[in-house]
Write a structure and sequence with these properties.
Rossmann fold; Dihydrodipicolinate Reductase, domain 2; 2 domains; 7 helices
Length: 325
């Protein structure tokens, strides 16, 4: 029997959720919802779904799962509605605007015994499988992370930490298993009234991590540079390329360079939403799919970073900031 799904919000990203769900053999895309009627009807028409303009009009008895792909400011109220109705819920990252809202959703999901998952899609990037283990004897001691891209108005309802850096915060938390012991951050607005560029320093025991994120750049970069005793690993999440440089034990003074392509025939979103469908069928998380609790942990760390940023303000930049986008 097919899993009956509704997609809430079919804008830039939501339309791809609808496309992927419609392509999955074990899924019936039943409802497509958007506050812009033309968009809802167009996407629904493409995939044989029923268009609606209000998520509250979705007959919850006729669906098994819902994907929330709306602006972050609306995630909480929409997800809460479906969790209270007992509908398995997938929410695009970040889970909510605040950790308090996220905690409430996690508690509601537990109370209703209803699955709640978050769209931390970088977990499905095949480059991640090449990541050095952070808890073994040869674990890295220093990681430099860069995630930048050119400015687009979409997504500016949240700052750069919640918009981009949260991908890397989630990956770090998954691999280390606990929040950092030391945190220091600075962030500035550049073209919006939100933080558009940020630099963050985190520390776990002997591991130090520097993160730089910006949505005001002339290029795209998504890279981890990992340093450990005797080796260096570059993880390019954008081009799915892994480069490792290490000492040649058989020829002292020489280096061995290995380049590995991590291409996959499957789209990351396809893998993520397929994992969500499997989780709905089984009633539990299917790794590496992010749970609501893990989405909450990422938001809590993001809030700690923003609190650190509040200690360093740059009022001199105010005249150059545009009106809210």
């Amino acid at each position: 029997m097919k899993v009956r799904v509704a997609v809430i919000g079919v804008g830039y990203l939501g339309q791809h959720h609808a496309r992927v769900f419609a392509s999955l053999p074990d899924v019936e895309l039943r409802y497509v919802v958007d506050i812009i009627p033309e968009r809802a009807y167009t996407i629904a028409g493409h995939y044989g779904a029923i268009p609606l303009e209000d998520y509250r009009a979705v007959p919850v008895a006729e669906i098994d799962a819902v994907s929330v792909v709306t602006p972050t400011t609306t995630h909480y109220e929409i997800a809460l509605h479906f969790l209270r109705c007992g509908v398995a819920t997938f929410v695009e990252k970040p889970l909510t605007m605040t950790s308090q809202q996220a905690l409430h959703l996690v508690e509601e999901a537990q109370r209703a015994e209803t699955p709640l998952f978050v769209g931390h899609i970088e977990r499905f990037n095949p480059v991640g499988s090449r990541f050095p283990v952070l808890r073994d004897a040869e674990s890295p001691v220093f990681i430099e992370i860069h995630r930048v891209h050119p400015f687009v108005p979409r997504g500016t309802d949240v700052d750069i930490v919640m918009d981009l850096m949260i991908h890397d915060l989630d990956l770090l938390l998954v691999r280390v298993g606990r929040p950092p012991q030391v945190l220091d951050a600075v962030g500035i607005p550049v073209v919006t009234h939100q933080i558009d560029a940020a630099s963050v320093r985190l520390q776990w025991d002997r591991l130090r991590v520097n993160l730089v994120a910006s949505r005001v750049s002339h290029m795209h970069t998504r890279r981890w540079m990992v340093f450990a005793a005797g080796r260096y690993v570059s993880l390019d999440f954008l081009h799915r390329q892994v480069t490792q440089i290490q000492m040649d034990e058989t020829h002292p003074g020489h280096l061995v360079i290995q380049d590995v392509r991590c291409d996959s025939s499957k789209e990351l979103l396809w893998m993520e939403l397929q994992a969500f469908v499997h989780a709905v069928r089984r009633g539990y998380a299917v790794p590496p799919l992010a749970t609501g609790s893990e989405g909450l942990a990422a938001i809590r760390l993001a809030e700690q970073i923003r609190a650190s940023m509040e200690q360093v303000r740059h009022p001199d930049l105010t005249p150059w900031v545009m009106t809210a986008v």
